[in-house]
Amino acid sequence: MLNCKEAAELMSQALDRELGVGERLSLNLHLMFCAGCRNARHQLSFIRDACAAWFRQSD
Amino acid sequence: MIEVNVQTEMEMLRPRLLRFAQLQLRSSAAAEDAVQETLLAAIEAQGQFNGAAAWSTWVFPILKNKIVDELRRRREPETDALPADDTTDSGDYFAADGHWMEMPTAWAGPEQALEQSQFWAVFEACLNGLPPKPCQVFMMREFLGLETEEICKELAISASNCWVLLHRARLGLRECLSLRWFGATAMRGK
User: Fold this and answer.
1) Which residues of A touch B117 (CB under 8 A)?
2) How far, in Å, CA of B145 to CA of B139, rounded?
3) Which residue of A has its CA nearest to B141?
4) Which of B9, B13, B176, B184 reaches 20 to 30 Å from B85, CA-CA?
5) What is the pLDDT of chain B when averaged over all its residues?
6) What is the reported pTM?
7) Looking at B24, B49, B73, which one is the last position of a domain?
8) Domain with B169 in it
């Protein structure tokens, strides 16, 4: 079973490459049991969205 | 040809273009140059501007190209490789057993934050607070829209180095935004 540090690495890499089947399974399993990592995953994807939104902000 | 009051549009856009260039080039002089060249190129090619789109959606890609050129130009081979121990230090956020030092709690109202100018000031301050290398790679990925392979090629680093740097930048931003923006309103628990 992944620990949070390993799970966080995979969450970040999922934004840059397609994870393997095994990686996805073990990440999802970890996320089922870990509220902290679920929060972190939302936040990482929020950060990506915020970067895209940076261009659309009004002055 | 579409009628655009080029002068006015540019003056309005200029501060944002400068901030964008400065975040990535980390030098006011280089940012000024890139923005100046961009505006000249934009004026020269204004006949190609499709008036249906926002002016900014047309000018930013020109600036992005200038920035990629500049980053490519200033590439220094001796600083490209990361020391080996550099690949393991997302450790700042995790205990030895791999657990979060501080469990991430949910952020309140992230969508609303995007509408607030104070949020963007904090966001940019957090970006500026990242160490230079992770920041540069992160900006290339998220703001210039480059794929990891392109970044690796530009900076002559390995894919795994690139992922480590991106991860570090994201964790740093997450932490900074948690503390400086969402901290006050964070909801406890799940």
Assistant:
1) 57, 59
2) 8
3) A16
4) B176
5) 83
6) 0.84
7) B73
8) 79-185
